[in-house]
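Section 4.2 – Deliverable D4.2 (structural model, holo form)

The reporting period included a commitment to supply a predicted holo structure for the target in complex with 2-acetamido-2-deoxy-beta-D-glucopyranose. Inputs used:
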Amino acid sequence: MAASSAHRCSFLLLCLCFTLLLCFRSCAAFARAARGIRFSVGDIAAVEAALPSLRQAKKTTFFEVDRPLRPPRGSSGPCSTLLLSHAFASTFNKPPVTAAYSPPSCLADAGGGARAVSLAVLEWSADCHGAQYERIFGVWLGGAELLRGSTAEPRPGGVTWTVNKDVTKYASVLAAGNSTLAVYLGNLIDDNYNGVYNANLTLHLYFRSAARSPSAASAPADRVIPVSRSTPLNDGLWFVVDNTTEVESTRLTVPANAHRAVLEVYVSSHDFDEFWYMNTPDQNGPFREVTVHLDGDVVGAVWPFPVIYTGGINPLIWRPITSIGSFNMPTYDVELTPFLGKLLDGKEHELGFAVTNAQKSWYVDANLHLWLDPKASATSGGLITYNAPKLTGSIVSKSSDGIDGEYDATASRNISATGWVSSSRGNITTTFTQRLTFVHTNVVSNQGSTQAINQTTEAHTEVTGDGPHTQQLHQSFPLYIFLGGDGSGTSSQRLMRRVEIGFDEMRAGSGERSASTLHNAQTAAAEVVLRDDQVVGASWQMHQVYEYGGSDGGCYSRNVSSVGYDVLFDHNEASCAGTRRR
Ligand SMILES: *[C@@H]1O[C@H](CO)[C@@H](O)[C@H](O)[C@H]1NC(C)=O
Ligand SMILES: *[C@@H]1O[C@H](CO)[C@@H](O)[C@H](O)[C@H]1NC(C)=O
Ligand SMILES: *[C@@H]1O[C@H](CO)[C@@H](O)[C@H](O)[C@H]1NC(C)=O
Ligand SMILES: *[C@@H]1O[C@H](CO)[C@@H](O)[C@H](O)[C@H]1NC(C)=O
Ligand SMILES: *[C@@H]1O[C@H](CO)[C@@H](O)[C@H](O)[C@H]1NC(C)=O
Ligand SMILES: *[C@@H]1O[C@H](CO)[C@@H](O)[C@H](O)[C@H]1NC(C)=O
Ligand SMILES: *[C@@H]1O[C@H](CO)[C@@H](O)[C@H](O)[C@H]1NC(C)=O
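Output (structure tokens):
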């Protein structure tokens, strides 16, 4: 459930949860009463038990569509190191599992420094058998978060999945020396939910040939400062934000010779806000944002991509092709270089997070990536302009009974800051600009049992100036969700779900790998047929198109479709010729 409560009850009546618990395993009956927006583990077990065609001979592999990671030409490796192997059984509200980390000896052999790494890949391989909710997990090294994902919900005969994440940007953390690796995956085992998550975490390092060093514009940060909670903790290292007024923060000091600073934010939504985009006005509406606070000022905002976990909406939809970002959640960069002048005074500063309109719970933390001046022990800077007007937006309810009706929400925010930093590279001025918009409609009918949500989040982020690091990033996150059915209250019912979701991104700017386009879109639907509350049929399908084009010649396209657990077709191509120009 990727949530901090024991069982997923937030959108169902408590008594309905009890019904499911009692029913689970002892009968293949589907939960009675109006459905919430999620199907439970028990519901899905009832589907699998009722339909002989779903009997499973061997472990199923679930996968998230992503582009393969390839080391730059001329690289050596991989040098692979198993960092951790663990069976996550009853780990909820317990300290994270830890392992001592020392940089692999091949890193020392390659010259030792972070600059020797041409590609670093963190591989998470896991399996699970039996019945279990999906859980959220995070991986931290020396307090810096490296990976966040949700697990795959198991099938009785088992499920396995693998995530490969490019962690090259954390090269300085990987090379820094001995530290502690921490993994939190809050799982619960009881009489009904027996699925244990077994996971292996492996680091694969590739090294550049001695002659090549990364260009200034693409080199990973020299230092990564975690903006997270410290152990000991009976939780992940993330901050937990439970309401709209709460600001969770930490104090940190920046090295005196920093010349560039980028804050990378990790965020995931849980419990009452897991499906925040479906929330009606009495649930604080459908708009959420994470604001980044530096000494009390809002210096950036993250308008998150709506990651739907593997148990979301109807878990069948995400089998075997899981939802975008669910196994490897996206992160968001906020350029703090314009504010370096403030941070370079050698004193502690407060960096914190709030979530606008939050309900329980949001897990937020960040890594502060810093580039240091190799030729000077101190840099200096100053803020020239800073403009962060209040969020604007509205929720318009067109409902006569407070349930059925149309709810329209909009939001918009602009932030911009310009500052100079003087270092051995000169006196460089940097401007960070964000222009964010959100448009949402939710049409609710049939006494709340039918919902059609259609929204788009657009984020324009720019880093401009006379330095080598410029970037224009345009992200667009369209989302359409339909929940409905027919035959409610009769002996013959159909429960329908439809999801269309997209992650579109255009990048331009300086640096060898900086220009790229990504179009990643899923269209999926599921239907469950009940007769007298017994499952008599279930069907679901998914179609996903992924098209990536990079200015470094790295292109990848994939067109994959599944019906039930079977992949119908799967075309992929790694040449730019196959990538449609957008
Ligand atoms: C973890 O690695 C061990 C040893 O190689 C292997 O036996 C096991 O199957 C792996 N587990 C997973 C979940 O990949
Ligand atoms: C780092 O850890 C390794 C392995 O545990 C140990 O041999 C080495 O002495 C440690 N180095 C430092 C600097 O603590
Ligand atoms: C918000 O959460 C914080 C931290 O849990 C708590 O101290 C505060 O009272 C809460 N505020 C409201 C309005 O509930
Ligand atoms: C944000 O900036 C854009 C372009 O400069 C402008 O059109 C828009 O009205 C601004 N929005 C807000 C909420 O200030
Ligand atoms: C850098 O440039 C800014 C204006 O562009 C100026 O205000 C500042 O004094 C300069 N700093 C140094 C150290 O020259
Ligand atoms: C969602 O709204 C957009 C913009 O109004 C529209 O183009 C699109 O067709 C809608 N999607 C669905 C599935 O209705
Ligand atoms: C995906 O493949 C299917 C089946 O081969 C084809 O009909 C469809 O046009 C393809 N879509 C894209 C976007 O390439």
